[in-house]
């Protein structure tokens, strides 16, 4: 339901394009890791995965979403996993994710663990990753698929008033949105090394997505904390939605 709803709604709010690394295919039981910038980016990625790869993943998301009427029921019914951050129950999310992976489902998570606390709508490289992704990959042996998204902040970002205004005006503005799906990787056993490798892969996927939108941070100029782009990006195949 959520993936189908996202695929139907996202084109109403912006112009979504999707690219993949050549030959990218998602094995059953893959971990999909995405950079997190906005409340809108799960919808972008769910729409891209469903529309281009026919994939509808299990989502690890903040437990507070389960308290929202209708949405909470849909999340529970479809087997999505609540993450109770900063509590004794937080580790249970990885156990539930491992069960989903063992059944052949894809699991999508945000290793940064939060939306960056900024008021502007610009893009920046992913923040540091937490270790949950590396621990899940080590426990399950699942391949990791790095995904970069850009443009979600153009729909909604900043404080509550700005977020609401962004959502209300997006159908008129129809901002550019882009998702890049990278080739699967295998992480090393060491948690610290695995976290660094995954962060680098998602950052590279983000550069491709943000670069497709002409975002200064991805092009290496004009933004605080910008990461210079590297030559020789992997060539990608573009699909327009």
Explained architecture:
An eight-stranded mixed β-sheet has the order 4-3-5-2-6-7-1-8, sandwiched between helices. The protein is 40% helix and 16% strand. It has helices spanning 2-13, 41-53, 71-77, 92-102, 132-140, 152-155, 160-173, 191-212, 216-219, and strands at residues 15-20, 31-34, 58-62, 81-83, 107-109, 144-150, 176-181, 237-240. The chain starts with a helix and ends with a strand. The chain is an alpha/beta fold. It has nine helices and eight strands.
User: What average pLDDT do the residues reach?
Assistant: 87
Strand content: 15-25%
Rounded to the nearest angstrom, the distance between the terminal CA atoms is 19 Å
Please give the radius of gyration in angstroms: 17 Å
Question: What's a quick, concise take on this entry?
Answer:
By secondary structure, the protein is an alpha/beta fold. It is built from 9 helices and 8 strands. Strand 3, helix 3 and strand 4 form a beta-alpha-beta unit.
Protein traits:
single chain, 241 residues, 8-stranded mixed beta sheet, 9 helices, globular
List the helices and strands and how they pair.
Layout: H1 2-13, E1 15-20, E2 31-34, H2 41-53, E3 58-62, H3 71-77, E4 81-83, H4 92-102, E5 107-109, H5 132-140, E6 144-150, H6 152-155, H7 160-173, E7 176-181, H8 191-212, H9 216-219, E8 237-240
Parallel strand pairs: 1-7, 2-5, 2-6, 3-4, 3-5
Antiparallel strand pairs: 1-8, 6-7
């Amino acid at each position: 339901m959520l993936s189908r709803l996202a695929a139907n709604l996202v084109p109403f709010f912006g112009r979504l394009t999707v690219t993949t690394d050549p030959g990218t295919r998602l094995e059953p039981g893959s971990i999909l890791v995405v950079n997190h910038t906005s409340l809108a980016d799960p919808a972008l990625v769910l729409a891209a995965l469903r529309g281009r790869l026919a994939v509808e993943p299990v989502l690890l998301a903040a437990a507070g979403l389960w308290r929202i009427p209708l949405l909470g029921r849909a999340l529970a019914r479809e087997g999505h996993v609540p993450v109770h951050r900063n509590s004794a129950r937080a580790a249970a999310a990885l156990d539930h994710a491992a069960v989903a992976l063992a059944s052949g489902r894809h699991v999508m998570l945000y290793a940064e663990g939060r939306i960056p606390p900024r008021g502007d709508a610009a893009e920046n490289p992913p923040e540091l990753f937490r270790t949950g992704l590396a621990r899940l990959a080590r426990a399950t042996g699942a391949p990791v698929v790095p995904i970069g998204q850009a443009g979600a902040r153009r729909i909604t970002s900043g404080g509550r008033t700005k977020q609401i205004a962004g959502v209300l005006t997006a159908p008129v503005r129809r901002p550019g949105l882009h998702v890049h799906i990278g080739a699967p990787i295998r992480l090393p056993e060491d948690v610290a090394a695995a976290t660094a490798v995954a962060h680098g892969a998602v950052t590279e996927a983000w550069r491709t997505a943000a670069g497709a939108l002409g975002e200064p941070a991805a092009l290496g100029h004009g933004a605080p904390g910008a990461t210079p782009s590297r030559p020789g990006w992997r060539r990608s195949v573009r699909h327009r939605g």
